[in-house]
Write a structure and sequence with these properties.
Number of strands: 21
Structural class: alpha/beta
Strand order of the largest sheet: 8-7-17-18-19-16-20
Strand content: 15-25%
CATH topology of the largest domain: FAD/NAD(P)-binding domain
Shape: globular
Helix content: 25-40%
CATH superfamily of the largest domain: FAD/NAD(P)-binding domain
């Protein structure tokens, strides 16, 4: 067995059919029926997009607008992927974003489509409270110097960005010698935790980074690339308490739902991909449809699904060795959200610590979500990631909710008096993602480019292939890139 086949067998060990090799016509390889969505079994112009998250939706929409014969296949019964707005569990028409949430001023694609589809982006609440090591303070107090973070080595006047003082020499090195210098590129071999220790950061600073920027990336410092962190601080400032964010008024799910409405019958739900065969003549996607395996033939295919799922799909023949390596090893984080409904918005009281609170508790972030919805009821939403998400993930939902209630009562002592109900979403339990979103792991500096590169008639989208990864905007960015790749392929 040659090396490529060896890698391929690792990727497809769950194969449900013994591969017999590709023939001249992909469409007659297996004795499975064609999907019932077709009136005939051949179409040499069809493009199939797999995955109706924002990457797949935007790609399919733009291809359709450009006159391509496009079909979008989705495993779930809804569009949106990791954009997931919960409504039904709550009272008084309240809702909560249990998946991708924030839109900032640099998210040009999101703003473009919101404007196109007449959706409004409203500002979200910025951080105003801090609860760490059992102590309460305010962002205003930190800025003024009245409050001090109880972390050894922390500077006065800010919450985020405390790590910069310990990596400044590497930031200067990038500016002096450039990104391509061997000294800078060598940082990809060490972790954020390693570089902070080398820079003299005390354990408290590493812990604070864990609760701050690492939480935003749903990762842990020991697995995050030092190169990526240094470059992020070189190009622009990282996320901080001053970052202005927003959400789509009425729910982020309105964006994927609008895409889906525009596509109409060209999007098909409840059809999980099991196998993909391809050669120079085209592709055949084998999906589950009404509890049976069926084939969908096409000229080209866009895989807009996370690498965490793609690595379990049978691909025949296997992709290139470097592609398979990236698919199998791309780092993803852990994330959990807990939405808690209270019958009164006690967090609005003048004596409250704040409405959006940074913590070092298992909940990490706790904030008033219902700022654009009428009261008196309201929702506190938590965002937990990294090791705390993993620990909570081992518990059942009742225990998760008990921890959430107890944590909120420590921050707001009156909270138990107003509790009504809660709901949990742990993304690593989701069968169609099994993760939060991607991040740059140690030794993975070239992964994104490899994951984004087409292989024959197969193209790749998703936030893990985007420059602005781990975001709704990055997902659409990747959909736009693939759309242009397919347009160029059509004219070449």
């Amino acid at each position: 067995m040659d090396q490529k086949k060896k890698y391929h067998s690792q990727l497809t060990r769950r194969s449900f059919i013994k591969k017999t090799g590709l023939t001249t016509s992909l469409f007659s390889v297996y004795p499975f029926p064609f999907s019932s969505i077709f009136s005939n079994s051949t179409d040499d112009k069809r493009i199939i997009v797999i995955g109706a998250g924002l990457a797949g939706l935007s790609c399919a929409y733009e291809l359709d607008q450009a006159g391509f014969n496009v079909l979008l296949i989705e495993a779930r019964s809804r569009p949106g992927g990791r954009v997931n707005t919960y409504r039904e569990p709550f009272s008084d028409n309240l809702y909560s974003e249990m998946g991708a949430e924030y839109v900032d001023s640099s998210d040009t694609y999101i703003h473009k489509y919101c404007k196109k589809f007449d959706l409004k982006v409203l500002p979200a609440k910025q951080y105003d409270g801090v609860y760490v090591k059992g102590q309460t303070s305010t962002i205003e107090g930190l800025r003024s110097g009245r409050d001090v973070l109880p972390f050894k080595g922390a500077l006065e006047g800010k919450l985020f960005g405390q790590e910069v003082q310990y990596i400044q020499k590497w930031i200067d090195l990038v500016k002096q010698k450039g990104i391509s210098s061997p000294e800078v590129q060598a940082l990809d071999k060490i972790s954020v935790e390693d570089i902070l220790k080398e820079g003299g950061a005390p354990k408290d600073i590493i812990d604070l980074y864990t609760y701050a920027n690492a939480t935003e990336e749903t990762a842990v410092p020991s697995k995050m690339s030092a190169l990526n962190m240094v470059l992020s601080n070189t190009r622009t400032s990282n996320f901080s308490e001053n970052t202005v964010e927003g959400r789509i008024f009425g729910g982020n799910d309105q964006l994927p739902k609008t895409f889906a409405k525009k596509l109409g019958t060209k999007i098909m739900y409840n059809r999980p991909l099991q196998r993909l065969d391809y050669d120079s003549n085209g592709i055949t996607a084998s999906v589950i449809e009404n509890e049976r395996l069926v084939q969908i033939p096409a000229k080209k295919c866009v895989l807009a699904i996370p690498a965490s799922i793609l690595k379990n799909i049978d691909i025949n023949p296997g992709f290139s060795i470097e592609k398979i390596n990236c698919i199998n090893n791309q780092q993803y984080g852990h994330a959990m959200k807990i939405a808690m409904q209270y019958r009164q918005r006690f967090w609005d009281d003048k004596t409250s610590i704040g409405q959006r609170v940074f913590t070092d508790t298992p909940l990490r972030r706790v904030y008033h979500f219902s700022i654009d919805q009428p009261g008196p009821r309201g929702i506190l939403l938590s965002f937990t990631s990294g090791e705390d998400a993993i620990k909570l993930g081992r518990l059942d939902n009742n225990k998760r909710l008990n921890i959430a209630q107890n944590t909120c009562s420590n921050i707001w002592p009156e909270a138990p008096n107003f509790w009504e109900k809660g709901v949990v979403k742990y993304w690593n339990e989701d069968p169609w993602v099994k993760a939060s979103y991607s991040f740059a792991g140690v030794g993975q500096k070239g992964f994104r480019e490899i994951l984004a590169k087409p292989e024959g008639p197969v193209f790749f989208a998703g936030e893990h292939t985007a420059i602005q990864r781990a975001s709704m905007n990055g997902a659409i960015e990747s959909g736009m890139r693939v759309t242009e790749e397919l347009k160029r392929a059509e004219t070449s």
